[in-house]
């Protein structure tokens, strides 16, 4: 059986390294937090917000759930949203998804899931996601595809993220938003380091 000892040992090692580099590292966060963004992301263990964005403690206020769903009927996520906006006064809300999402894959295969017929929290949440995606699901009946399948998407790392600044944008549509090598959905071609002007959806480079 796996114990917590390895995690505790790594935590002690991490804390020691931080203190050796900056003796006041932990003292900086004693008096409270001033995060600049609320990050709503997926619970997938491969996409931790702070690691992928290189953020330090105090920079991101984070909420994660299966398939990074934002449901107005979910008191959990809505209480996080209200706290971030009204008390922390974050500058922006980032709703971040990623490729290879297990929640989306589970929604597409819901009828075959062991919990699909049970009144479980997982079945309800995944069922909501499936209902949201039903227009995008290829339906097959009697061997006939009722809707043409989409063109195969290029292979991407699950760590490649799609994020949308949603609240209090700090930029105008014509101002520089991002610099990248990969192609944005509505931005300049790959390799052209021009300013992103999408001002809505931004693709981060695959890792």
Based on the model shown, name its key terms.
alpha/beta, 26% helix, Beta-carbonic Anhydrase, Chain A, 2 domains
Major sheet: size, sense and barrel closure? 5 strands, mixed
Question: In the residues, how many domains can be counted?
Answer: 2
- How are the strands of the biggest sheet laid out side by side? 2-1-3-6-7
Q: Superfamily at the CATH H level of the largest domain?
A: Carbonic anhydrase
Distance between the termini: 33 Å
Mean pLDDT: 70
Number of strands: 7
Number of helices: 5
Q: Write down the Rg.
A: 20 Å
Which structural class do the helices and strands define? alpha/beta
**What are the segments in which pLDDT stays under 50 over at least 5 consecutive residues?**
139-149, 163-207
- In the CATH scheme, the class of the largest domain would be Alpha Beta
Q: What is the molecular shape?
A: globular
CATH fold field value of the largest domain: Beta-carbonic Anhydrase, Chain A
CATH arch. level architecture of the largest domain:
3-Layer(aba) Sandwich
Report on the structure:
It is an enzyme of class 4 (lyase). One of its GO terms (biological process) is carbon utilization. Keywords: Lyase, Metal-binding, Zinc. This protein has five helices and seven strands, in the order H-E-H-E-H-E-H-H-E-E-E-E. The chain has about 210 residues and is an alpha/beta fold. Strand 4 and strand 5 form a beta hairpin. Helix 4 crosses helix 5. It is globular and about 55 Å long.
């Amino acid at each position: 059986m796996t114990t917590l000892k390895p995690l505790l040992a790594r935590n002690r090692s991490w804390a020691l390294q931080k203190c050796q580099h900056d003796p006041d590292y932990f003292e900086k966060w004693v008096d409270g937090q001033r995060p600049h963004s609320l990050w709503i992301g997926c619970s997938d263990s491969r996409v931790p917000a702070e690691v992928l964005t290189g953020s330090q403690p105090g920079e991101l206020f984070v909420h994660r759930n299966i398939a990074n769903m934002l449901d107005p009927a979910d008191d959990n996520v809505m209480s996080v949203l209200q706290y971030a906006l009204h008390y922390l006064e974050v500058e922006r809300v980032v709703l971040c998804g990623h490729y290879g999402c297990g929640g989306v894959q589970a929604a597409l295969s819901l009828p075959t899931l062991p919990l699909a017929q049970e009144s479980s929290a997982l079945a309800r949440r995944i069922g909501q996601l499936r209902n949201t995606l039903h227009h995008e699901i290829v339906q097959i009946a009697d061997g006939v595809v009722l809707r043409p399948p989409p063109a195969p998407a290029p292979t991407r790392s699950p760590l490649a993220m799609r994020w949308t600044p949603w609240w209090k944008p700090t930029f105008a549509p014509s101002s520089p938003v991002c610099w990248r090598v990969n192609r944005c959905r509505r931005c300049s071609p790959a390799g052209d380091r021009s300013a992103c002007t999408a001002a809505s959806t931004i693709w981060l480079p695959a890792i």
